[in-house]
Amino acid sequence: MRIALLSSTLLLLGGCSSLSLDSLPSLPSLPTITGDKVLGFITPYRVEVVQGNVITKELAGRIKPGMPKGVVRDMLGTPLLTDAFHADRWDYTFTIARQGAAPQKRVVVAVFDGDKLKALEAPDDLPTEREFVASINTYKPGGKPPRLDLDEAERSRLPKPAKSAEAAPTAAAEGVAPGRVYPPLEAKAEPRS
């Protein structure tokens, strides 16, 4: 029984390996696994790869020549590439490949003179924070976004909060907002005699 099962499995696998898309004249438009869709309707999962430091126009604008290396590292993050032979150069490389969004790659170079920043070399097409978020956002809502605030007419229709008669004097005596009573964090110390 095992031999029959093994033989049929090997025959099926051997048949699959001899099948190629070129040998199927009736299916010339059948995409491959490297395309966007397989068999025209299955989208394979692709890992989203984000590597490096996101540096926007606003962030690059805060970096000024003469800043120490430590401050630059605090603001931009640890550089993705540092070279032992070029200790005065830090490369901030950023790449992202996300389904439904165009892949991006940018390189920002910080050049130092000793411990002080000499120059920050950034590409001209460095995005703003809003542009960057919009470029990686693959969610496209169908309508307009929901409103998160209330106008005066909507606020007036809200039910008024009930005031607690016993909580208000205690809260006022403690200096806390009315309607909120919190227990003391520490016991009050008794005066020593």
Automatic annotation (TrEMBL):
Biased composition (Low complexity): 159-179
Positions of the Outer membrane protein assembly factor BamE domain: 52-118
Biased composition (Basic and acidic residues): 146-157
Region: Disordered, residue numbers: 138-193
Signal sequence, renumbered to the chain: 1-20
UniProt keyword list: Cell outer membrane, Lipoprotein, Membrane, Palmitate, Signal
Pfam families named among the record's database cross-references: BamE (PF04355)
InterPro entries associated with the record: BamE, BamE-like, BamE_dom
Keyword Membrane: yes
Membrane-topology descriptor: Lipid-anchor
Record localization: Cell outer membrane
Domain of life of the organism encoding this protein: Bacteria
Subunit-level organization: Part of the Bam complex.
Function, as annotated: Part of the outer membrane protein assembly complex, which is involved in assembly and insertion of beta-barrel proteins into the outer membrane.
PANTHER family: OUTER MEMBRANE PROTEIN ASSEMBLY FACTOR BAME
Family: Belongs to the BamE family.
Protein name, entry field: Outer membrane protein assembly factor BamE
Gene: bamE
